[in-house]
């Protein structure tokens, strides 16, 4: 019986070796997916067989540097777009000036464009990733903070999120931190009830810390990130825009979001706290006079102030506590 067992083992080994040998004769053994036919070519794109995509590497998790190369959500989405178009991918760091990169022909498309910004004269696609200044809590049942509730927040110092907290809840409600990492540590320690941060950057920071934080409300009306291309390049707008829409619809971008953020970004239906605060101002005094044109103008001014320049994934702001709409251009939030 022992000899038969040994013989059987040898036969299995020989069969395995033969199988590997046949695989080696027919090719390298590595799976090579079938290349798709290119859907666009010059002059629609600038380089034959390659889609050149611009990103801002100073804006993680959309794009940043890792292990000596450019990585991030936008890079993965760009790779999916290029694959669907049957093209190779070339990632170009365009910094904070995507308009110049498009105008100079350095790239075919750019990713990570704030769809609420009017800066730059180029075509914008529909949004592929929602964002906005969000309110994070340790539990989805933490409740929505009211403007007069005395709720406490941590937010990165001099960020747009810190500005929004001070503007809506007052400076005493804000605990400024040097980073989002410290803000979420304060939330976890219980020294604050909420964290205010850009939705995408906040989810990325919390996920990196292994913290299961939930978005319970928005401080400002959500906006999103979109793709940009030359106004004149209608063929590329159609081809790349249609692919991007399919990737949103079939869940591909959702998979990429979960890879980087631990979840998909769903902001629809969330209460916008600043809208509630404006409504409260409009009805606080009561009486039929509140519906007069003068009062409506006051309410409109408050709305404009709350939303001015704040609907951006860069989460940049003016100085902490400043409630003027002009001073909303401070430091970007960092997930570190």
Q: What is this entry, summarized?
A:
By secondary structure, the chain is an alpha/beta fold. It is built from 10 helices and 13 strands.
CATH secondary-structure class of the largest domain: Alpha Beta
Order of helix and strand elements from N to C terminus: HEEEHEHEEEEEHEHEHEEHHHH
If you compute it from the alpha carbons, what radius of gyration comes out, rounded to the nearest whole angstrom?
Answer: 25 Å
Low-confidence stretches: 1-28, 279-330
On the 0 to 100 scale, the average pLDDT is 81
Terminal CA distance? 64 Å
**Principal-axis shape:** elongated
- In DSSP terms (H or I, runs of 4 or more residues), the helix count works out at 10
* Main sheet specs: 6 strands, mixed
Which structural class do you get from the secondary structure elements?
Answer: alpha/beta
Estimate the strand proportion.
15-25%
Count of discrete structural domains: 2
* Corresponding CATH architecture of the largest domain: 3-Layer(aba) Sandwich
CATH superfamily of the largest domain: Periplasmic binding protein-like II
């Amino acid at each position: 019986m022992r000899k038969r067992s040994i013989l059987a083992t040898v036969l299995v080994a020989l069969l395995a070796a033969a199988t590997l040998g046949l695989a080696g004769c027919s090719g390298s053994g590595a799976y090579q997916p079938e290349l798709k036919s290119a859907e666009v070519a010059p002059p629609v794109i600038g380089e034959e067989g390659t889609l050149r995509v611009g990103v801002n590497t100073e804006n993680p998790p959309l794009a940043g540097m890792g292990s000596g190369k450019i990585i991030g959500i936008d890079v993965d989405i760009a790779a999916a777009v290029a694959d669907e178009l049957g093209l190779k991918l070339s990632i170009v760091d365009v910094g904070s000036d995507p308009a110049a990169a498009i105008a100079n022909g350095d790239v075919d498309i750019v990713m990570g464009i704030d769809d609420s910004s009017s800066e730059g004269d180029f075509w914008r696609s529909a949004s592929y990733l929602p964002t906005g200044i969000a309110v994070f809590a340790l539990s989805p049942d933490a409740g929505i903070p009211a403007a007069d509730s005395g709720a406490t927040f941590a937010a990165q110092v001099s960020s747009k999120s810190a500005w929004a907290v001070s503007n809506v809840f007052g400076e005493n409600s804000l605990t400024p931190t040097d980073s989002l990492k410290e803000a979420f540590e304060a939330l976890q320690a219980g020294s604050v009830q909420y964290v205010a941060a850009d939705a995408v950057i906040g989810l990325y920071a919390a996920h990196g810390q292994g913290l299961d934080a939930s978005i319970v409300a928005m401080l400002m009306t959500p906006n999103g990130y979109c793709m940009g291309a030359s106004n004149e390049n209608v063929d590329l707008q159609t081809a790349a825009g249609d692919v991007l829409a399919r990737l949103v619809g079939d869940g591909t971008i959702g998979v990429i979001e979960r890879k980087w953020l631990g979840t998909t970004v769903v902001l629809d239906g969330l209460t916008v706290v600043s809208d509630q605060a404006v409504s409260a101002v409009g009805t606080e005094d009561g009486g039929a006079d509140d519906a007069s044109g003068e009062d409506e103008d006051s309410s409109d001014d408050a709305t404009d102030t709350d939303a001015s320049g704040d609907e951006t994934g860069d989460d940049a702001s003016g100085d902490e506590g400043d409630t003027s709409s002009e001073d909303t251009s401070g430091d970007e939030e960092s997930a570190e």
